[in-house]
Amino acid sequence: MAELLVGQVLRFAGDPMVEGPGAARHDARGAVLVAGGRIAAVGDPAALRAAHPRARVTDYGDALISAGFVDAHVHYPQTAIIASWGKRLIDWLNLYTFPEEMRFADPAYAAAVAERFFDLMLAQGTTTVCSYCTIHPESVDAFFTAAQARGLRALAGKTCMDRNAPEGLRDTAQSAHDDSARLLAKWHGVDRLSYVFTPRFSPTSSPEQLEALGALWAAHPDCLMQTHLSEQMDEIAWVRGLYPQARDYLDTYESFGLLGPNAVYGHAIHLEPRERDRLREAGAALVHCPTSNSFIGSGLFDMAGLVAEGQRVGLATDIGGGSSFSMLRTMAAAYEVAQLRGHALHPAQLWWLATQGAARALRLDDRIGNIAPGMEADLVVVDLASTPVIAQAAARAGDLWQALFPTIMMGDDRAIRAVWAGGRRLAG
Ligand code: GUN
Ligand code: ZN
């Protein structure tokens, strides 16, 4: 049955990072027609009702209908260790992350966390994530099984690491290659699921492992490859010691074939000019993880500079280095980081980064992250007056952006009125 969702509607006709807020389209009273899992039409509520009299109507009043949020970089196995105190990247990995990831050898534990993770994400209005798993193939099965059961578009891969990690959390160059190939064959393209090659980062992969994964990616160039790049200064110094022949951090990937248009690099904060040039030439994506960058003390992402030079940038929580599951909170953190760099991101830009921009970083912007006929019907309905303090701020607003910004800065799961994925109502 067709569904007609009525409310305020926000969508994008262009890229507001380049064109400014004029790239957004806002209907104060609009409607979205959903049929067969896709968006069939967008327009005037009365006209769409008249044209589709059998569609079931849900009127969300003043709430804002948007594309569901897209989180372009997360670690679902770190769900339980979010908000772990007091460490910077390398110690944080060793003290909190690796012991927790070890537990995913148990398929029952992996399944339980995957279920909890998707429930938490959907409660925040996030309908697509691109996740790291652990070295255990079972952790990938758990992730995709939970996503599939909810009808979500989801991306993930087995995290590959064969050194500088504890016993029990290391694979080998050969097993990483073979397990990744097997999981790709099992899950890639099944329903709405995509497999992503996932070497964790250069410090935990031997050159042999990076080479093996580079060869596998070359055989499947349509797949994404995700990893971490230049997150923290100590990490960069470590990479220099481990790969003395490399020109810079990016070169540890580039020299093994792990740079290309379908590469997705998390963090990318402390980049050298050569790295920026090569990233842009290759058409790779950079994913900004602002709550993580503050929480682990990594640094301030150069959003304005990277966008100005033509880099493809997305936004993400980086759970559990990130300190919130909410893309609203993540937009707020991106705003604050940009402010610290002397640049005010517009609400239209923040919203775009959390939807269409993140989808574009994952090369999915033709399917998700926007409201337009033919796009998959992954939607979030946002209450712009979800708490007394947000309501009083929004009541003073003169336009959509002033009404939306208090929710960006102060909103949480209470603002998420409804979530639709693949044309099905999952909540609200
Ligand atoms: N670098 C390598 N692994 C990780 C991780 O799990 N989280 C973050 N934030 N950075 C990393
Ligand atoms: Zn990460």
UniProtKB/TrEMBL annotation:
Residues in Amidohydrolase-related domain copies: 65-424
Cofactor(s) this protein cannot do without: Zn(2+)
Chain ranges of the Aminodeoxyfutalosine deaminase/Imidazolonepropionase-like composite domain: 30-55
InterPro entries per record: Amidohydro-rel (IPR006680), Guanine_deaminase (IPR014311), Metal-dep_hydrolase_composite (IPR011059), Metal_Hydrolase (IPR032466), Metallo-dep_hydrolases (IPR051607), MQNX/HUTI_composite_N (IPR054418)
Main EC class the enzyme belongs to: hydrolase
Keyword line: Hydrolase, Metal-binding, Zinc
Reactions this protein catalyses: guanine + H2O + H(+) = xanthine + NH4(+)
One Pfam family recorded for the sequence: Amidohydro_1
UniProt-recorded Gene Ontology molecular function terms: guanine deaminase activity
Keyword Zinc: yes
Signal peptide start and end residues: none
Pathway participation: Purine metabolism; guanine degradation; xanthine from guanine: step 1/1
Co-factor remark: Binds 1 zinc ion per subunit.
Function of the protein: Catalyzes the hydrolytic deamination of guanine, producing xanthine and ammonia.
Family to which the UniProt record says this protein belongs: Belongs to the metallo-dependent hydrolases superfamily. ATZ/TRZ family.
Protein name: Guanine deaminase
Species this chain originates from: Ruixingdingia sedimenti
Gene behind this protein: guaD
